Queue: 2 jobs
Job 1
Amino acid sequence: MSDVAERNPVFAAEPARSLGYLPKLLDRWRLMLMVQALDIAGIILTAVAVYPVSGAGFTGMPSRYLLGALLTAIICNVSFTQAHLYDSDSLLDETGSIKAILIRWSAIFLGLAAAAALAHAPQYYSRLWFVAFYAGGAAMLAGQRAAVAILLRQWIRDGYVTRSVVLVGANELAAGLVERLEHNEAGIRVTAVFDDRSRRTESFIRGVPVLGSVDDLLEFSKTHAADLVVVTLPIAETVRLNAVVAKLRQQPLNIRVLPGEIGLDRISPIRLSRRELPGVQLIAVADRPISELALFVKGAIDRMAAGLGLLAISPLLLVIALGIAMSSPGPVLFRQPRIGYKGRVFQIFKFRTMHHEFCGSYTPTLRGDPRVFRLGRFLRKCSLDELPQLINVVLGDMSLVGPRPHMVGQKLHGTMLFEEVDDYMARHRVKPGITGWAQVNGWRGPTETLEQIERRVEHDIYYIENWSLMLDVVILIRTGFVGFFGKNAF
């Protein structure tokens, strides 16, 4: 435990509450998925419930009706998602949400009716059922939104479904922001304040604890939720402000700057474009490179693909393991601490390619390195020694695609890498990967020169700032052609 954890028990405390019967379900994106599922199920059940009005009685519902209801539910889900109607702010504002939903619901039905007319296929669906489906669906969605808003407000009052805001700057502006947010109904909670001059400030800002410096905040964010970081330092102090933001960019944080008192001078809680803090004007500085929902989807795909991959190549893994056991005495797998997501250290798995007595060495491998045995040299050349990292992906320490994880305390000519390259620590804003943008662009292998480090970091930052699932697919495809072989693999 770090010094700040010892000084501040908040660091060691449970970071968030959860309902026993719905563990972890009430994170905002999980809440969004829950409401989406309710909408889809409600639309389909409404279509089934009103089917008797078509004149067919309670006999079996034809499959075309079910397909029509499913298509309607999918179109609604896409439309509502694009309109941000599943965001917690929209779910709390049932009046505005219901109005927006009814407009889109009506537009979708008009579009479906027009499509049926143009296709000359109105006889496939009963008009009475179509009208009843429209009216029943509208009533269901409106009632459901009202019920969700009531339930969500209760959860917020009980301390659930909250958004954690952390402030940087223990000053009067921070106190004003805390005061503004003290009695909000959106679930926003200011949980901590950090300041490099914390030893010269009060221990609390209007009841919110001052927990240490910006470095302490970086440690805090590794284990505690920080949905938004608001810097309340004077914007005229550009040097100090830039230094603070540069440090904060080492972690996957949404960073905003409060531009002085003018940012608080709002008579009413206006809706900002990002609807982050009611009645407060913020300047966006940096966003998480990957949202919570996208991170979940990426992680789920990674683990599923890695698990299937391990099963598919298990014969190859067995052959390699036998080959290593016969070539060099010692364990088949090699483990080494590496720096991962948010700067956390994890144990990476690789096939052992060096003689066992040299495996504890942290000296980088060189061309023709005598520590590498013959089969190990072949495995390294073909990158087959990296295959056990699929285990790291299944465990959640790594991703299929991401910046390659470096050794703990890795240096270049006696200097730590983060001291050589400004954006080096920003690589840890995403999980490390088995392959990455730098590797498929030729920057794989040794880190013997400053240029090699800079180009690798440059490509890693590009990947982080431009991430998408499609980019991951492109990198995986290119890895199959160029990533596993090359002059820099040895």
Job 2
Amino acid sequence: MRPTRVLLILAVSGLVAVSCVPFFPVGSGVIVDEAGAVVVVRWPAALEVDEGEQVSHYDIEVDGVVVGSVDAPATSCVLAGLEPNTSYTVAVSAIDDTGEWSGQVTAEGYQDIFRPTGLITTPADLVGGPLSCTPGTDTDGDRLPDIVETDTGVFTNLADTGTDPFDSDTDADAIDDGDEVLGTVDRLDLPALGVSPLHQDLLLEFDWFDDALDGCGAHSHQPSATAMAMLAAPFAASPVTNPDGTTGINVIADHGQGGLFVGGGLIDDPDGVIAGGVSGADYLGYKQAHFAPERDGYFHYVLMPHRYNTSSGSSGQAELSGDDMIVSLYCYGSDYNVATTSAHELGHNLGLHHGGSESRNNKPNYNSVMNYLFQFPGIDTDCTPTGNGVIDYSSGARVALDENDLDEAGGLCGGVAWDWNGDTVVESGVAQDINGDGGLHVLSDHDDWANLYLSGVGDADGAAPVGEHRSFTVAPLVTEQPIPPAYRTD
């Protein structure tokens, strides 16, 4: 949810003087956030060029009168005492530990002529009184003062965000609370896109090619609204718990649908294919040209060519884990194929292997679209090793299967029999390679939903994310199977 009111007024641009006094970056301004009875004033950190000197504190002025002082490095305060239905000019000055201040004329005649200011017109619901601006302590460094992070799990407005003042990412979705409430410092308006600091969000940008390759006529690889709804549905219905008391993950996909979603778009490519894969020069060049830099670290980037590696039959490729992936369905980009393949590649970005926590594929009891048994057929809903068309990750509920000692009476679900060796007799003690990898192993399900690694979105192109349980120096790439013949329909 968006703050109820956010006013941002930038000061007029000017030159930063070459003085020895503290100064502010040109183009910055005071940001005044008002909600209910609380007004939060924020400003950029001032700079100090003199060696051994540093900014000591900031004075906050309202209509030319200093009403409060805040010790650095804090850059916010809570303004009280404003009268209702009144306009005020708010300004901030920086003072260093020698007593020099921004705006001071030095002995050499230099002056910092740029000072951030802001303007606010108060609503009728404020209560006047003595003016003051008390330090807005920000314990977790998320740009939200502790006083507004009420830790209730309910976002009311900017004065009552419901977030945890001791955790910069209350909902653990790898996006800081301040970014989700205020937008990013690079002016990416995340609140307008629908994020919440109390509910996990996943953001994706889809860029696509149009072509007429392989004899299937002119076609576009732009994902439809239906395909994106099919992709979002299992995340929304997932058992992931959120601080707001709900379950599920909110998927926000920019596929060029208009309005605020204009990042996803058609790439003018002459042949519909790219040379190389996710780490190749073509992919990285297209991303650099079409992916807005302020989205880096927040959005997963999905490129949808006809094929990659020029003529590959692979249905896609993705970083494990990371933020980049390819969905390449050649002539067979049905809504279902787009949705399930996108979910599969996104799962790799989120740290999932073809066997959940391992690369062992085709395990009948790993009930996830990450498993090649279920990537296109969908997961199993009736305790059989065949899919039933449902796009989902696993919750880890299936029993372990020891290929050296299979109990056919227990089957996949611990009570629905399955004849693993095909001899029409339900028996125990069966030894059978049921996942077809040439050996006999203990096969385990995996709780995908409980083990998603959302921080991969913060990796640099071609590099591995830095985070828990990740020891890669370069993000591994997972190259996918071709589209199975049964799913080669448009």
